[in-house]
TrEMBL record:
Residues annotated as catalytic: Y49
GO molecular function, one term: alcohol dehydrogenase (NADP+) activity
Top EC group: oxidoreductase
Organism (species): Cottoperca gobio (Frogmouth)
Main location: membrane
One annotated GO biological process: aldehyde catabolic process
Domain of life, source organism: Eukaryota
Domain NADP-dependent oxidoreductase residue range list: 16-291
Signal peptide stretch: none
UniProt-annotated location(s): Apical cell membrane; Cytoplasm, Cytosol
The protein's name: alcohol dehydrogenase (NADP(+))
Site positions for Lowers pKa of active site Tyr: K79
Catalytic activity: S-nitroso-CoA + NADPH + H(+) = sulfinamide-CoA + NADP(+); S-nitrosoglutathione + NADPH + H(+) = S-(hydroxysulfenamide)glutathione + NADP(+); a primary alcohol + NADP(+) = an aldehyde + NADPH + H(+)
GO (cellular component) term, any one: cytosol
Length: 324
């Protein structure tokens, strides 16, 4: 099993990358340095994580002429936030990420969500009652502006994040530069088999964020299932003398899914890369697939009428009202 996938653009994307979402200031720089030093060649970033400047500090120490790594040896992804969907804002947002990261180009730039929020400087523009201010800018308009980033050499390729199958097809139908990736929440409790199969059929690679179930998500409630503590996974891991995390990552890799596990612990960062020295049997692959219960952990929720509901479900481009 190769440690790369080849995207439709011809680029080779490492199948394990370091995720930087939720990595606190003061921690993410050391995490990126630890990852590069133990062999990672793929770092996943986003403007909305508010830590790209610190990622850039780490890159400046290890990557570039006269440094340990050449720029073309490292695959860097960033994402366009929801408040920057207006065509007039896309290039400026991309250049801002490049400046923070200290780079002249990105290997991949994604539309973070299909939903546009009101333009402006705030990440989450809200009304007085706390509700989010939406914009009706269509993601197709945003895509046209993303394509000009490729034309200008600011990014090597462009892609999607959190788009459903219909929205992905919608972009493909009008694209000059086809989307090469759709980055979505994916783990054994949300196996995304239908979306994965669909994306394969249209030459779009799937990247799994929260591939280990995002146990550290800030809004997790104590009664929610914890993937890494699942005894069924523990039993499989014991047989292979691996950790549960390594078994999950291996499951993703064998399905052809790219993974960006987040960690700031050097020993775990290293362990997460050690998934190329074993293979899961077909039976174990099927057993892990059977854990699927379509459990989405990474959708913002709010309380309405005493019930937890998806915050953005009324947005015209909310992706998860469609089955996959």
């Amino acid at each position: 099993m190769s440690s790369f996938v080849t995207l439709s653009s011809g680029q080779r994307m490492p199948v394990i990358g370091l995720g930087t979402w939720k990595s606190a200031p003061g921690q993410v720089k050391q995490a990126v340095l630890a990852a590069l030093d133990c062999g990672y060649r793929h770092i996943d970033c986003a403007a909305a994580y508010s830590n790209e400047q610190e990622v850039g500090e780490a890159l400046s120490i290890r990557v570039g002429s006269g440094k340990a790594l050449r720029r073309d040896e490292v695959f860097i992804t960033s994402k366009l936030w929801n408040t920057k969907h207006d065509q007039a804002d896309v290039e400026e947002a991309c250049r801002s990420s490049l400046a923070h990261l200290g780079l002249s180009y990105l290997d991949l730039y994604l539309i973070h969500w299909p939903m546009a929020f009101q333009r402006g400087k705030e990440l989450m523009p809200r009304r007085e009652d706390g509700s989010v201010c939406y914009s009706d800018t269509h993601y197709r308009e945003t895509w046209a502006a993303m394509e000009s980033l490729v034309d200008k050499g600011l990014v090597k390729a462009i892609g999607l994040s959190n788009f459903n199958a219909r929205q992905t097809d919608d972009i493909i139908s009008m694209a000059r530069h086809a989307p090469v990736v759709n980055q979505v929440e994916c783990h054994p409790y949300l196996s995304q088999a239908d979306l994965l199969s669909h994306c394969r059929s249209v030459a779009v690679c799937v990247t799994a964020y929260s591939p280990l179930g995002s146990g550290d998500r800030p809004w997790a409630s104590p009664d929610e299932p914890s993937l890494l503590q699942d005894p069924r996974l523990g039993a499989i891991a014991q047989r292979y003398q691996k950790t549960s995390a390594q078994v999950i990552l291996r499951w993703h890799v064998q399905r052809g899914v790219v993974c960006i596990p987040k960690s700031v612990t050097p020993s775990r960062i290293q362990q997460n890369l050690q998934v190329f020295d074993f293979s899961l049997s077909e039976d174990d692959m099927k057993q892990i697939e059977s854990f699927n219960c379509n459990e989405r952990f990474i959708v913002p929720t709010v309380e309405r009428d005493g019930k937890r509901v998806w915050r953005d479900a009324e947005h015209p481009h909310f992706p998860f009202n469609y089955p996959y």
